[in-house]
Every structure is written in structure tokens, then in C-alpha cells.
Write a structure and sequence with these properties.
By secondary structure, the protein is an alpha/beta fold. The chain is built from twelve helices and eleven strands.
Length: 420
């Protein structure tokens, strides 16, 4: 049998690149703040260590400094498995066991109170097996708490971890609950949590009014750079609820999630770790195109894709903080996205670049809105992305087109920011 040495060399080369990319990524995750030598800490490391020592979540600050705000209240709690303190203790348990108030109802978002339901599947209302209180579904027959669900409630409290992207529906649930709280004259309190992508990164088109949906409830860019408490203040400009945000301590806008010292709690079935949080917006944009993600958003590919060509084009684009490895997973050609610098990586830029080059290679069909708005446009918040991809406009043109709207949003959000 004749051996094709050229092909063997190519296979060996890409296998080596793949292994090296994993080593680089793991090394970065373990040593994200590099030192000049082993004997000295950088200013960044010293600052990060100090922040971790003094950092406190909103739910911790509530019990330490603002417990008087819940004294004697009958509380309805909007939460899920991410609603924990820095020790991993559930806000459900903390409020139920707090003797000066009474937890009387829970409200579950998409994926349920335990975060295990698959995306898009309805969540059921039931009685909590331990505390014998109702767990009302806000992702079933209704996505808003009804008047009946809110009876006997003196105060609504929201405590859930967001991932910093407009399309993630936990912020939509917050918006809807704030609207109903205003309607029924019930105060609402938001226990603040960090934006895992940080407070400096702002990317993507600002959602246009005609594309509002449950995956885009307000005029936000794809990546908004706001905490859940800041988002609540932003939403309230239109809702007029009786809102109180309990801020974090020891948090600033330059911090990404690892700087807080918190352990990531799986926020939904496909977001098990912080890497998937950063990749969600990079590989999750191709709804309806056939260019789809796999393996917790770490891989993207589709029909008629040449993985080597796609990887070469993406790597030649010199996107900061990321490297693309050609892969074939279950007969799907595509690329594995390796983040090598979390602070430089821009998820939406990467996502649009992937779609742009994939379109060049495979000429996939762009979903188009007509009488009904297609999910692709709902996610993008506009139909312009699809139009530009179809016309072959490159990522730099797309970024420039949306820059004015993004700059306007940055100015608008200033009045709602809590942290420097």
C-alpha cells in the first residue's frame, strides 16, 4: 500500500496545533494574569487578589446592611439554581430561614428553578417539595406573573445570574416582572450580580423596536456591559416600578467573572462554565442558517463547510484573544473556538466573522423576515445583519454601520450605571 506522506504530515500538523491550542487555553485559564517572573506579582494580580477579598454579592450585602428592607415582608422570589451567595448557599434557603420575613412564593424562569429544562421547553408550576410553597412558572402558559400569582406578596426579589448578552432570557423575565410589579403596585428588589463579560465590553447592533421579543425586550446592544442591577435601572426608564437595587461591594467595571473569586454555577444546560459564557455570543448567532454550535458553544460548523479553509480565513483575520482550530465533529465540518485571552476577546466580532467567512465558503441561506419576524433577526435585533451578509459586506463594514447607535447607547446608559 502506497503511503501518502504529504497527507500524513498535514494530519500530524493540525493534530499538533489542536493539542497546543488546548494547552495554551488551559495555561491561560490557570494563569490569566501573567507574571514577569515567578518571584513577583503583577499589579493586575495584586489588584485582583484585593478585589476577591472584599467582593460581596448583592444578596450578601442585603443581609449584612439592608435586612430592615425585608423585615415583616411577605416575599415572592424570582430565582433559580444560580441564586447563591459566595459560599454556595441558596437565596431560597436564606430567605425561607430568615425569621423576620416570610417567603411565600417562588417564580421560575426558562430552564426552571433548577436550571435543568432544555432551551425552549415549557416549565411547569408545582409546589416546592421542601418548603411547601408554590413555584410558579414564568416560562409556560405565561411569561409574566399574573395577579393571582402575586396575591399576598408585599415585595418581589430578583436574584439570578445573567451572562451579559441581550438574548439570554433571564433579563427578559426581569423586565416582565418589573412591568407587572408596577402594574400591581408591588415593590421589586434586585440583588446585584457581576456581568461575567465585564462592564467595559459593549458590542453589536442596538435592538430596533420592531424586533422586540422575549429574546430582546429592550433597546440593548447584543453585549451591553451592564450588571443585572444596572439593567433593572435601565429598564425602569420605561416601566416605572418601585425599584430598589442592592449593589455589590468590591466590584468595578473592569472586572470579568474570574476577578470576583466566585465559582461559576451552571446557568442553563448549555452554559456549564465561564468559557461557554464567553462563547455563547460567538457561536450562537446562526439560528436558521444551518451554521450551528456544538459542545457548549465551543464548536461551530455546518454543511458544505471546509474546516481548514474556515480556520485559515478566521485566523488570518487576526481577531484578538482567540484562535480557531479546524475540526470535524460527528461528520460536521467547522472550527473549535479557543479563547487565549479573555480580556481581549470580543465575542460578537468573532461571531460575525464566523458567519461572514462561512457564508463565503458554503453560501448558506439567510433566513428572512416577512409578516413574521424570523428568529435570526430577533436574535440580531435587526434585519440588517442578514442583508449585509447576503451582500458580502465584511465584518469591519458591519461594525462601522452600527457604531453610531452603539455610541449613543453608551451615552444613554451612563445615568444607569452603579459602578465605576
Amino acid at each position: 500500500m502506497k503511503v501518502n506522506h504529504k497527507k500524513l504530515a498535514i494530519v500530524f500538523l493540525y493534530t499538533l496545533l489542536y493539542v497546543l491550542s488546548f494547552i495554551i487555553t488551559e495555561d491561560y485559564l490557570n494563569k490569566s494574569d501573567r507574571t514577569e517572573n515567578n518571584s513577583e506579582l503583577t499589579d493586575k494580580q495584586v489588584s485582583s487578589m484585593a478585589n476577591k477579598e472584599k467582593f460581596k454579592l448583592g444578596n450578601e450585602v442585603l443581609f449584612e446592611k439592608y435586612s430592615s428592607l425585608i423585615e415583616g415582608k411577605k416575599i415572592g422570589l424570582i430565582t433559580n439554581q444560580t441564586g447563591v451567595n459566595s459560599k454556595g448557599e441558596s437565596i431560597i434557603d436564606m430567605l425561607y430561614n430568615y425569621k423576620s420575613s416570610k417567603l411565600v412564593a417562588l417564580y421560575a424562569p426558562e430552564h426552571g428553578i433548577d436550571g435543568k429544562a432544555k432551551a425552549g421547553l415549557p416549565v411547569k408550576t408545582y409546589t416546592h417539595p421542601k418548603y411547601n410553597i408554590p413555584v410558579y412558572s414564568l416560562y409556560g402558559d405565561t411569561r409574566r406573573p399574573t395577579k393571582d400569582m402575586l396575591k399576598n406578596i408585599d415585595l418581589l426579589i430578583y436574584d439570578m445570574q445573567d451572562i451579559g448578552v441581550r438574548t439570554y432570557t433571564y433579563i427578559s423575565t426581569l423586565n416582565y416582572c418589573m412591568a407587572e410589579a408596577a402594574k400591581y403596585n408591588i415593590p421589586i428588589m434586585v440583588l446585584d450580580r457581576p456581568n461575567p463579560l465585564g462592564g467595559m465590553l459593549v458590542e453589536g447592533p442596538v435592538l430596533e423596536d420592531s424586533f422586540k421579543s422575549f429574546v430582546g425586550v429592550d433597546n440593548l446592544p447584543m453585549i451591553h456591559g451592564m450588571t443585572i442591577g444596572e439593567l433593572a435601572k435601565f429598564f425602569n426608564r420605561n416601566l416605572g416600578s418601585n425599584l430598589k437595587v442592592i449593589p455589590m461591594e468590591g466590584y468595578n467595571r473592569s472586572m470579568i467573572y474570574e476577578d470576583t473569586g466566585l465559582k461559576w454555577v451552571q446557568s442553563s444546560p448549555n452554559i456549564p462554565d465561564i468559557k461557554s459564557v464567553f462563547l455563547y455570543c460567538a457561536t450562537g448567532l446562526g439560528e436558521g442558517t444551518g451554521i450551528t454550535q456544538k459542545e457548549f458553544f465551543s464548536f461551530i460548523g455546518g454543511e458544505n463547510i471546509n474546516s481548514k479553509v474556515l480556520a485559515d480565513k478566521l485566523n488570518s483575520a487576526n481577531l484578538k484573544g482567540v484562535y480557531f482550530v479546524p475540526m470535524n465533529i460527528n461528520n460536521t465540518e467547522g472550527v473549535r473556538v479557543q479563547i487565549i485571552n479573555y480580556e481581549e476577546f470580543k465575542p460578537f466580532e468573532a461571531g460575525i466573522s464566523i458567519l461572514y467567512y462561512a457564508k463565503k465558503i458554503s453560501d448558506f441561506k439567510i433566513p428572512k423576515s416577512g409578516k413574521d419576524i424570523v428568529m435570526f433577526d430577533k436574535i440580531m435585533g435587526t434585519d440588517k445583519i442578514g442583508e449585509f451578509l447576503e451582500k458580502g459586506y465584511d465584518p469591519s463594514y458591519i461594525e462601522d454601520y452600527f457604531k453610531e447607535g452603539l455610541d449613543n447607547f453608551k451615552r444613554q446608559r451612563e445615568q444607569y450605571l452603579i459602578y465605576k
